[in-house]
Amino acid sequence: MPTLEEQALSKTWFYPFRLPGGHVTTTYDGGALDAIHATRLAMLRSALQARFGASINQCSVIDIACHQGYFSTQLAQAGARDVLAVDARAEHVADATLIRDALGLKNMRVVQSDVHALTPQTVGTFDIVLMLGLIYHLENPVGALRVARALTKNICLVETQIVPGLSGVVDYGSYRFVRPLKGSFGIIDETEETHGPEASTTGICLVPSIDALIWIMRKIGFTRVDILPPPADAYEQLRYGKRVMVAAYIE
User: Fold this and answer.
1) Residue 176 carries which DSSP code?
2) Does the pLDDT of residue 222 top 90, yes or no?
3) How confident is the prediction for the chain on average, in pLDDT?
């Protein structure tokens, strides 16, 4: 019977996992997407170091929509005391479980759940909440952000595609009553792609502008929300502002 490491090496992954034997998993498209994962990880590590210093040993983590568990394993390997990796797709839960076991990470748990089903009563609250690459695949991104806020004790990191924003005012019921726009959402159609492992599970996707994202996160209860600067060698979408990672704090 093949070992766990052999099982991991026998398939193609979305992420380049380095295994105990020194091998790195093969990734899609000959590694064409590896740069986005490297940029996300660099920005994540920088934000956590600024918040917690050199060690996250006392921190609990939830990785919402963990996919194959890449960022969960990174924080578990960095010494987080408890990492909960959550994904809605059974195949992602199976992959994250395999890679966790191949890496021997006793401080990482993997469960299957939709983001909207998560509550503090069922899973607890966490020092670090990750929501990377999720909200632009959702038809209710505001509800998902509310979940993230409810689960956050200290810092929440959200990475997302963004769309161009709208500004100005609109008549709101009458020309005598106008309201300012706080941002905007773009509608993306993934209804023909719901079978895909990196697509929406429902197909209707509302993608925020950066102004909308910041305004919403402040309104739902984060006390501070910062746009994180990408590194100089960042993946092109993060470098040119087509995607962002924000850090939201409870202070």
Assistant:
1) T
2) yes
3) 96
Alpha-carbon distance of 116 to 141, in angstroms, equals 10
**CB-based burial label for 74 (10 Å; 0-12, 13-18, 19+):** buried
Q: Which of 49, 91, 41, 45 minimizes the C-alpha distance to 70? A: 41
Burial (0-12, 13-18, 19+ Cβ within 10 Å), 168: exposed
Task: Return the bridge partners of 208, or none.
Answer: 185
Identity of the residue numbered 107: N
Q: Put residue 29 in one of left, alpha, beta given phi > 0 → left and psi -120 to 50 → alpha.
A: left
In order of their start, the domains of the chain are 56-228+241-249 (3.40.50.150)
Contacts of 122 (CB under 8 A, 6+ apart): none
The dihedral built from the CA positions of residue 39, 40, 46 and 47, taken in this order, carries a sign that is positive
Half-sphere exposure of 39 (CA within 13 A, CB side): 23
| Cα separation of the two ends of the chain | 51
pLDDT tens for 107-159 read: 999 999 999 999 999 999 999 999 999 999 999 999 999 999 999 999 999 99
Task: Quick: pLDDT tens for 156-210.
Answer: 999 999 999 999 999 999 999 999 999 999 999 999 999 888 889 999 999 999 9
pTM: 0.96
Q: In this structure, what token pair is assigned to residue 168?
A: 């100005």
